[in-house]
């Protein structure tokens, strides 16, 4: 049995999160009460299909015309409206031509926030990277999904090994790649050139070289692309400074299972890490000191961690099918939602407007109150006063017949629930209650 800890969930502040799972479903979770709301599923987009498993996702959180890009296991990339889940366009990965999607699945996806000034039509720009290291940047015209707005840039980020992730910095000028047998490396997206590569580990005492298996990474600060934190399959967390050296500046072990998810805090020095056994913790990366573990252990591997850009909360999800919301100050579990399928990623929707929700709830409450008042008024005006009939001790023939019928029915119930009477006994009872035929 998995190790779990039961704690009270006081509720979380108003927020909206999107989760992605192994059956290709996108579920919208919202908490609307300000004092501590209960998170619940309000929408579900798509139909369950294992071949459409969501392997990567990226949200363009612009205030005007926000977009959501998702990559599926079958190699299809979809652009959705994050407000209602409406499909805007669907394209196939051009870097996967002639190869089965299962053999070269999409490992990283990024939807650029910035718009190309030379493009007058509505368009979106995508960075796609596959497990074999095929990276490409393409701009797709939203009006005509069959035409690319300009020739796509394509290059290869690794000669051997498999890519596990790709991350883009806040300025969207640099990208970071790494994976199994692939040392973490950084590329300039404008020129598609490699600007830095981590130095491989030295050989051991027996002279055997074992390449590192990187599983996740994040930029320590969205405004500074020079510092990157990466997690490895041998439960190590490493900090790299591109401007200082090729070796890791800080390296430490966390528990005894592979690191599966790493994300940064806006303060620029705190990170949140999750591993394959469900441990979730915060670390001060400047010293490598463990600040503390989050209360209420998950019962499955953590696959994604998201930090809310405004609220002091983080969200985690993984193979135990739970979405959990945590308070970063007390490291206490605020809310949890069971979503039935294995979860692959979680994203916060920063366009969630609490004031609009309040206005909507106020209108709904006013409408419900008005409806109740109308019903009460109708009941008060339409129903005449009921007069109680005086009993004079006399019964009509119909009333006597109805009373005998009720008595006979009760006796029949007793007959079936107790010992069985003979037919003659039952006929005698009927004659006594209802009279002769």
UniProtKB/TrEMBL annotation:
SUPFAM superfamilies in the record = Quinoprotein alcohol dehydrogenase-like
Q: Which UniProt keywords apply?
A: Repeat, WD repeat
InterPro entries the UniProt entry points to: Quinoprotein_ADH-like_sf, WD40/YVTN_repeat-like_dom_sf, WD40_repeat_CS, WD40_rpt, WDR74/Nsa1
Sequence segments annotated as region (Disordered): 374-398
Instruction: Map the WD repeats onto residue numbers.
Output: 295-336
Protein name in the entry: Transducin/WD40 repeat-like superfamily protein
């Amino acid at each position: 049995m998995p190790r779990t800890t039961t704690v009270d969930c006081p509720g979380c502040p108003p927020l909206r999160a999107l989760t992605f799972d192994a059956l290709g479903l996108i579920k919208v979770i919202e908490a609307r009460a300000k004092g501590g709301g209960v998170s619940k599923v309000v929408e579900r987009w798509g139909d369950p299909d294992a071949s459409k498993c969501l392997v990567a996702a990226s949200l363009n959180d612009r205030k005007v015309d926000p977009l959501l890009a998702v990559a599926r296991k079958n190699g299809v990339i979809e652009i959705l409206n994050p407000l209602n889940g409406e499909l805007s366009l669907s394209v196939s990965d051009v870097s996967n031509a002639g190869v089965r999607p299962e053999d070269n699945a999409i490992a990283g996806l990024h939807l650029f926030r910035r718009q190309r000034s030379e493009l007058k039509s509505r368009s979106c720009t995508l960075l796609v990277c596959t497990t074999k290291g095929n990276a490409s940047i393409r701009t797709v015209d939203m009006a005509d999904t069959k035409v690319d707005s300009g020739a796509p840039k394509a290059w290869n980020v690794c000669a051997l090994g498999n890519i596990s992730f790709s991350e883009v910095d806040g300025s969207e000028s640099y990208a970071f790649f790494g994976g199994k047998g692939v040392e973490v490396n950084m590329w300039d997206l404008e020129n598609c050139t490699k600007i830095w590569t981590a130095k491989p580990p030295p050989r051991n005492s027996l002279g055997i070289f074992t390449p590192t298996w990187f599983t996740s990474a994040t930029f320590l600060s969205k405004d500074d692309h020079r510092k990157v934190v990466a997690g490895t399959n041998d439960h190590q967390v490493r900090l790299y400074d591109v401007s200082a050296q090729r070796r890791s500046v800080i390296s430490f072990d966390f528990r005894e299972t592979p690191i599966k998810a790493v994300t940064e805090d806006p303060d620029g020095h705190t990170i949140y890490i999750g591993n394959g056994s469900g441990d979730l913790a915060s670390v001060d990366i400047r010293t490598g000191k463990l600040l503390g573990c989050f209360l209420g252990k998950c019962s499955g591997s953590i696959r994604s961690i998201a930090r809310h850009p405004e609220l002091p909360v983080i969200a985690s999800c993984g193979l135990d099918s739970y979405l959990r919301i945590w308070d970063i100050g007390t490291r206490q579990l605020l809310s949890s939602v069971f979503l039935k399928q294995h979860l692959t990623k979680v994203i916060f929707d920063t366009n969630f407007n609490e004031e609009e929700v309040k206005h909507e709830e106020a209108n709904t409450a006013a409408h419900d109150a008005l409806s109740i008042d109308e019903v009460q008024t109708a009941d008060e005006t339409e129903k005449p006063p009921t007069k109680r009939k005086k009993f004079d001790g006399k019964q009509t023939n119909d009333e006597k017949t109805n009373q005998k019928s009720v008595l006979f029915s009760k006796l029949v119930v007793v007959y079936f629930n107790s010992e069985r009477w003979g037919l003659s006994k039952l006929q005698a009872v009927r004659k006594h209650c209802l009279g002769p035929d």
